[in-house]
Amino acid sequence: MELDGNTLIFIILILFLFFSSPGGNGVTSQYEFNQLHLFTQQLETEYSTFQNLTYNSNFKNITGLKLSYHDVAENALINATYPIDSKNYEQWYNNENYLIMPDEITQIIGDSIWNITGNGEENIFPPIITSTLLGTITLNSNDKYSRLRMPFANFYEPPRDFSDNIPPVGDTYMDDWEDYNEIHNVTFAKGEMKVQFTHVDKVFTSLQGKKKKYFNSQDENWKLLNVKVDFTDKNENEKHSINTLGVYDIKTGRILAMSESAKFHSLFALPHYMGIGMTKAGQKQTFEQSKKLINEYWNTSKYIDTLTMGYINTLYDDAIEKCEFMMFFQLKPWNQYNKDQLKIIDDELKWPLGRPANLTHVPDIVVTSGMVYSPDCGISLSTNDIHGERYELKIRSIRIHMLCGIFLFAAQIYLLLRQMQHTNTPSSVNKISFYTFCMINLVDGCLATLYFISATLVPELYLPLVISAFASFILASIFETRYLISVYASQVNERNVGIITLLRGRTEDPDAANERPVVIPDEASISSSLYGRFAFTLITFTFLILNSMSWPRHFRIIFEYSAIFILNSYWWPQVFRNAIKGIPSRRERERIENLANRRQNKVPLLWKFIIGTTFIRTLPIIYFFTYSSNIFRHHKDTRFVVILSLWLLFQIVVLYSQDILGARWFLSQHTIPEGYSYFKPVSLALLKEHGDIDDMADTANKGSSGDHPHNIIAKVDCAICMSEVPVYVEELPETHGVDIHDYMVTPCNHIFHTLCLENWMSYKLQCPVCRAPLPPC
Amino acid sequence: MSVENPTGLHNYPVTRTCMILTAVVPFLMAVTNDKYIFLAQYDPFINQYHQYYRFFIYQFCAVNESDVMLLLLLWYDYRHVERLFGSYKYINVILLTLIYTTGILSLLNVAVNVLFPAIIWNKLPTGTLPTVLALFHFYKQYTPQLYEVNLSLSQPWFGKSSNSSFRWTINNQVFLNITIILLLLNQGLVGIGCGLICWIIGIFMEKGLLPGVDNWRLPFLRHVSHLDTPLSGSSRYRMIQSQQQTTELDALNGIQGENVHPDDEAPDEPERSLGVQFLDTFRR
């Protein structure tokens, strides 16, 4: 390969762009550098304050924890700048003088949330709780409690212009803003809640870290969790999502998580709040252990050194857009197991070897009671009935479902192959509806793309996902598209012909006939255009589906139901096609003796294919709509499935009736125009056109003028077998002995033996002489 | 009879089945994430969990992909043995080898672990390594060497005057030998140890110390269609040889008369395999 100067410069430029992206912490300007610097300073100060914190002393200068509920209740517009006069920093009690929530909430948490206390030896809680839990959430009050003032430092704000190098100083109190209440509130009374627990056992030790390192020395008793909580109202108009760190105390089954933002550095608050509802001794122990956990996490992950601009921006956005939430969860104990059994179960789930762990009976992770409180918005919510199975078990059941799916794909491929063998001539393929297979193909293609996308997202299921994607891709893009191409190629004659004309099977006026394209595109051009169309529709539809998942529930369900309904109407185009082609009834078909004819009149779709395809395609829908604990947590709607099944059954019944009664039974007789008939008498003028029969025409003329005694037969050469075809000429009574079913006249007025042309037409629907399209008979 | 074996697996039903099983079982097990049931270890599966079934199934699936590849190559090489024995005898020998190796290795493993709890022989090999190693003896015993090559490498440090050059003789079976060595090394000490034991089992079987090679046959297998007519049993080979000496044409007629029914004419087009049939759906 030759490289000239320009190419070289271009390549260097591209490489420069690649490698000059902001490294590591994402700082791209002086302003951001200063922002990060200020943030680091703030955190270092707060961390050293946290280091001096004991179970019996108050938070000092830590963001979000400077005020207590009592301070705000007394003076709603109090300034939070540390130190506040008359505030006791040297003591700590779990009441509203020190906590950021009212005594009432503290009372509820101590009495009815974290109430499975007492002697820790009695209860055994699962040490590993990676799972997604679902349940409901109820609003207790959103206007009863005072709102804690939580200022955030001004340096978080983005620069005002390019020359701005120094971030502003001071604090902002957001509750002074006018529209504050509109965003920062929970307005629904009851909603749905999703909680995701993931364990944080290992952390990267630097920004470009390749290897993760364990940090937790109290792994037996304490776990650091990543907690993701989403709660919405039923119609998903209002959504609150929190993604933060939490602490799990395995001895008591308590989980505490607090959201984190520029106005609330909750990590430092966890030790004090874990002790709510405990005795002083318990508080001390809990405080010290959880403080150690956070210290270990902080130091191992090099928290200060691994800060990024992205993190600062997320904190800033969260501070502006969201309320802060404190979440108190109590897990249900698994007292049916002892510690050894739990260890075996956890090992087997993590690294299956066939240990004697009865995985089918592992119970769900259940949050028996939970409380969500927002200090800065004064909202209190309680959770009900939150539960879900372990992540690994969920993956196992998804894997089994996917294997069933792969089996369905294989069955569909087999059926399609049988169907393709059944219709292996252009004549029979011509009777297949293009749009039926377009719909089927669209669904399979979308599944293939979705599987491919999810294969990159769920590494645990990579193998089954890739195989599913492969199977559906083979089905959609090789078999079905290939079949579509042959269907399209056999119907290309009819592309620009009206429906009535199609029903009739010929064009009315000869001028229109001339307009038809004589040059028929070959399969290569058809396939390239079809593949292009296939890819385009596929990508559009896949994006639509992916996009629709984030729509509000109302729109999403309308979209889902109508898409399923439309895509499950796939037999209607075939019904229509049958009517156009006018397939005779079963009795008529049996009456036809001629083998070649019978083959051409067979029903285009195999019954095996129709029933099997319908079954294969409806089965997953039935599963998702009737089995309430299905893998996607799709809601249950039996009525829709019943309607859909009846709809499909109706389509099949109509197809069957067409098979039995003939494809046009529902059209009244006079609406059906007569189709093109290949069997018709030949006119003398037509006969004259064919040059080789001049002399015969002369004799015929003589015969008609004078009564000629000889038995005159008009003959034309069949271009296929090169032998003579006797024809029935209307003007010549002498030729009326010829059976008009022995020869065929094409719309382009060429004459062949019936057997010759029928054989030819099963390969190509073009006139062998002039290549004009032939209507299939 | 040609010197080289025909390539491909046409008319090698047993070899083909073995190869397909060697490849397909690990694949299916990987998809369903159940490969671990083919791990055979004394501790903890036998002494703690009492999962004795692992002794009986561990040979059916190689846990590592590299083992799968090596075993596939070896089964392909062993098609000589199928050709020599005929398919029916070959499958019986394979089954017998499987039984002997499974039984002897399992008993030895349990015995060693019970008698010497300190000496740890914990793992058994994965995949059909034991069977393949026992069959290796049969292969060596019955397959003649076709050619050999002398590699003489002069030793540079003695100078040109020295006549002592390094000689290395290899024959046409060197690839098989290398594959066997790789297979043994691939599973470490377990592979080497168990491999040698199984080779000895193979020798014992062939010498008759472990009976059954000549007379143990599973009757129901005879009815499996393609095992019915052994491809080239040694007796038939001898028969063809003798007949060729008289008149070749008569011999050919004789074989044809034996195999083909007189009114059964050969099909005018060759039999189409499944793959060809798939492709044909597009061509037509």
From TrEMBL, chain A:
The keyword Signal applies. Residues 1-26 form the signal peptide. It is an enzyme of class 2 (transferase). One of its GO terms (biological process) is proteasome-mediated ubiquitin-dependent protein catabolic process. It comes from the Eukaryota. It is a multi-pass membrane protein. GO terms for cellular component: Dsc E3 ubiquitin ligase complex; endomembrane system. It is found in: Endomembrane system. Its EC number is 2.3.2.27. The chain crosses the membrane at residues 400-420, 432-455, 461-479, 530-549, 555-572, 605-626, 638-656. One of its GO terms (molecular function) is ubiquitin protein ligase activity. The keyword Membrane applies. It catalyses: S-ubiquitinyl-[E2 ubiquitin-conjugating enzyme]-L-cysteine + [acceptor protein]-L-lysine = [E2 ubiquitin-conjugating enzyme]-L-cysteine + N(6)-ubiquitinyl-[acceptor protein]-L-lysine. This is RING-type E3 ubiquitin transferase. It comes from Maudiozyma barnettii. The lineage of its organism: Eukaryota, Fungi, Dikarya, Ascomycota, Saccharomycotina.
Automatic annotation (TrEMBL), chain B:
It is found in: Membrane. GO terms for cellular component: membrane. Keywords: Membrane, Transmembrane, Transmembrane helix. It is a multi-pass membrane protein. This is Derlin. The chain crosses the membrane at residues 12-32, 52-78, 90-120, 174-201. InterPro entries: Rhomboid-like_sf. The keyword Hydrolase does not apply.
